[in-house]
Amino acid sequence: MKKLSLIILSLLLLRLACAQDTKPNIVIIYVDDLGYGDLSSYGATEVNTPNVDKLAKGGIKFTDGHCSAATCTPSRYSLLTGRYAFRKDAAVLPGDAPLLISTDRPTLPGMLKQNGYSTAVIGKWHLGLGNGDVDWNGKVAPGPLEIGFDYSYLIPSTGDRVPSVMLENHHVVGLDPEDPIKIDYKKKVGNDPTGIENPELLRYPSDKFHGKTIVNGVSRIGYMSGGNAARFRDETVPYQMLHKARTFIDDNQDQPFFLYFAFHDIHVPRLPDARFIGATNMGVRGDAIVQMDYITGELVKHLEKRGLSENTLIVFSSDNGPVLDDGYTDESVELLGKHEPAGPYRGNKYSAYEAGTRVPTIVYWPGTIEAKESNALVTQTDLYASFAELIGHELTATEAPDSYAMWSTFAGQSDKGRDFLLEESVTLSLRHGNYKYIHPTKKNPGWIKLEKNIESGTSNVPQLFDLSIDIGEQINIADKNKRLVKKFQAEIERIKNNEVTR
Q: CA-CA distance, 371 to 364, in Å (whole number)?
């Protein structure tokens, strides 16, 4: 009996050691502006997304999963640092912004690299580059390679901002030294036509903010001259990203790798490849969703082809909620039809309401994670600490200060989610169980309603909603629940004034 007990104990210890040494490949597929209701697996009926649906059907499909903020840059900052973006005063960055993540701050790719992973970011960046005075004709640094990535292939900021080029590691791809790039966000440089001056050259109109230099038939934010041989065609960027991702996988298949695959789809300008035009009745926004689904499928198929799928953990999600008119008149509003990009939730991108941060969230690891649907309250901010927990990395006292280790929840082994979950927008909001609290603010972001036709969700009085009976956040119950309001206000203040120490 004693011998049997020792054998059992040895097996348990061996199993624990193996679990702590588990180092699966990790792929984060990060879509831009994809709403909760934009996938057929999340209720969409006007668009079909079979490849992403395969992940949802075979993995953990979260119904209460959140990005950290209702806009792009803050969500990406929190994802890669495990730190709330408001601590850095992070907002949507201009195209010439310096690198937002300090090179001495621990990052998710840096942590994984420290534990033997090869790391890559492919796609949209929008976290700033350089030190504030970028020379696009020379070495562009610091950037992803200085914060933990071994390889990068980027749209430097966003597709609607110049420079409209791809940046591989530290240099612009395909740049002709005899045709140097010049960028200015305040005054015109060079003689390139602009959307404001030459609207007849545009594929579709834009607002004035997006009405500067025309590239590939679409005007952008900011002025650009030169770099003509390096300028991208929006239609081919997804294929270029896919090719680089396949190459990275092939080159690193014999060791653990981390791939942060950051789509530009379905962000504006929406210019899907010709093969996807007409794939839906919703115009280019719907067609861009189909394109995104196709590229996702091809990426997953490549992992399967290389025999890596059962050793690869995939997280699929979005950086914020949906938006229709975001600077271009591309008929996304007019052709929406019955489609509900935010599903049953109120708000959109930019909004403090639930749809600003509640996004599709899927964790897929065939052979390890059993398929299920989970209503656990989860946030992308916790991926850092959860991956650390998975691979047996002990976080330092200052590492990922707002990230909590919740691997058992992400793996579907537990239904316990966050007790309190912070949401960032123009103000700060808090989820606790079925309660949604929006902190009052004196800020008046009228441009969100005026320019985007989106409810900001802000108010100068507290807002409290019970999502269990009011999923659309229509009935403010703050006045009748002053104790809860006081509790939630205190929790927000506690979070603001304290970073986690371990």
A: 8
> Average per-residue pLDDT in the chain?
95
Phi, psi of 65 (to 5 degrees): -95, 145
Burial 39-62 (b: 16+ CB within 10 A, else e): bbbbebebbbbebbbbbbebbbbb
Higher-scoring residue by pLDDT: 8, 257: 257
Cα 51 to chain centroid, rounded: 19
pLDDT over threshold 50, residue 339: yes
Taking alpha carbons only, the member of 100, 163, 152 closest to residue 128 is: 100
Whole-angstrom CA distances from 49 to 17, 38, 67, 323 are: 39, 9, 21, 19
DSSP string over 139-202 = ---SSGGGTT-SEEEEESS-TTBS--B-EETTEETT--TTS--EEESSS--SS--BTTT-GGG-
d(C-alpha 52, C-alpha 295), whole Å: 10
In the numeric block, which tokens belong to residue 428? 């700060």
pLDDT tens by residue, 414-452:
999 999 999 999 999 999 999 999 999 998 888 898 889
pTM, whole model, 2 decimals? 0.95
Number of helices and strands in the chain (H, E): 10, 20
Angstrom distance (rounded) from CA 174 to CA 153? 13
Q: What confidence score (pLDDT) does residue 14 get? A: 41
